[in-house]
Specification:
Layout (H helix, E strand, L loop, with lengths): L2 H81 L4 H17 L4 H13 L12 H20 L14 E2 L4 E2 L2 E2 L4 E8 L4 E2 L3 E3 L4 E8 L4 E8 L4 E8 L4 E8 L4 E8 L4 E2 L3 E3 L4 E8 L4 E2 L3 E3 L4 E8 L22 E2 L5 H10 L1
Parallel strand pairs: 1-4, 2-5, 3-6, 4-7, 5-8, 6-8, 7-9, 8-10, 9-11, 10-12, 10-13, 11-14, 12-15, 13-16, 14-17, 17-18
Helix pairs in contact: 1-2, 2-3, 2-4
Length: about 350
């Protein structure tokens, strides 16, 4: 075979190989472009799908929120209507329904609490004694005491949900019983201003006053038994300013005053018994500025004074001073009026 023929064959083979290589490269390039286009298309579709799903999710959340709000508002209207009914059983159902709604509706929990406190502030006729209205009175009292129990249950440690730190307005409420034992007043404003403790037993035993403001301004203790036994006054501000102690028994026996001011400014102790027996004064300040000791039996017998101050220096009237375990020498931390405790007691004995 001549060299020319061989050269022609080689040239032809190279041409074929070049053509095949070009075709293969072109196909690969086309395949890469196709895949890139497909990837872009899929990415765009995924992005659009994500936007669509997000929009649908937001719409669903909005719809559910609106439905929840409508349901909660309907529950509120139903519970409020029940509380206003004449039949006691229906009112009881309304109290529990409103409390349950307060648990479920945090953003309007205070409103639900206000309704329950508002029920207690409504006019309340005294015990008629025997007669046809006796059962009506007892039924009404049961509803009122249930409100107190429900509120207290949500103010104790471990309550879930807790109502601690909320505002409670008991202004002018007539208390003829009820148990606030173990409640934690740790924030918000709690008012017993002008409340009347006129009968039965009202207990604040083991309650803790550790924050916020609690006021008994102008409250009237005119009967029954009110106990703060074992209560802890460890912070915040508690005021019995202008309170009237005219009858019955008010006991702070075993209470601990360890922090924060407790004021009896302007209080009038004209009757009954007010006892601080075995109370512990280990901190804070308890003041009786402008208070009048004019008839009540006030006893600090067995109280322990290890810190803080109990201040009687600026009392307005001191005709019936309190009794201490020590006779003559004031306990540590007790500031008496200018006229000593011993001299005052001697004058009373001579009188």
């Amino acid at each position: 075979m001549s060299p020319q023929v061989v050269a022609a064959i080689i040239a032809g083979a190279l041409t074929v190989i070049g053509t095949l290589a070009a075709q293969i490269y072109g196909r690969r390039a086309t395949s890469r472009d196709t895949r890139a286009t497909l990837d872009r298309t899929l990415a765009e579709q995924r992005e659009q799908l994500d936007k669509t799903l997000e929009a649908q999710s937001d719409q669903l959340k909005q719809t559910l929120a609106e439905q929840r709000t409508r349901t909660l508002n309907e529950r509120f209207a139903t519970a409020a209507e029940q509380i206003g009914q004449e039949r006691p059983a229906v009112r009881l159902a309304g109290v529990y329904a409103m409390a349950g709604l307060a648990d479920d509706w945090e953003e309007n929990r205070q409103t639900c609490v206000d309704v329950l406190c508002g029920y207690l502030r409504m006019p309340y006729d005294p015990d008629p004694g025997e007669g046809k209205f006796r059962l009506v009175f007892l039924a009404d009292r049961e509803v009122r005491h249930t409100v107190i129990r429900v509120i207290t249950a949500h103010l104790r440690d471990g309550a879930g949900p807790s109502w601690q730190g909320r505002n409670f307005d008991f202004t002018g409420v007539v208390f003829d019983g009820g148990d606030f034992g173990g409640a934690r007043f740790s924030g918000g404003q709690v008012s017993f201003g002008g409340a009347r403790f006129s009968g039965g037993q009202v207990s604040f035993g083991g309650a803790e006053f550790s924050g916020g403001w609690v006021g008994f301004l102008g409250a009237e203790f005119s009967g029954g038994q009110v106990s703060f036994g074992g209560a802890e006054f460890s912070g915040g501000q508690v005021s019995f300013g202008g309170a009237e102690f005219s009858d019955g028994t008010v006991s702070f026996g075993g209470a601990e005053f360890s922090g924060g001011p407790v004021s009896f400014r302007g209080a009038r102790l004209s009757g009954g018994q007010v006892g601080f027996a075995d109370a512990v004064f280990s901190g804070g300040w308890v003041g009786f500025a402008d208070a009048e000791f004019v008839g009540a039996t006030v006893s600090f017998d067995g109280a322990r004074f290890s810190g803080g101050q109990v201040d009687f220096a600026r009392v307005r009237r001191w005709s019936h001073p309190p009794m201490f375990s020590q006779d003559g020498k004031p306990p540590v931390g007790v500031v008496l009026p200018v006229q000593s405790f011993k001299e005052t007691r001697s004058q009373l004995k001579r009188g």
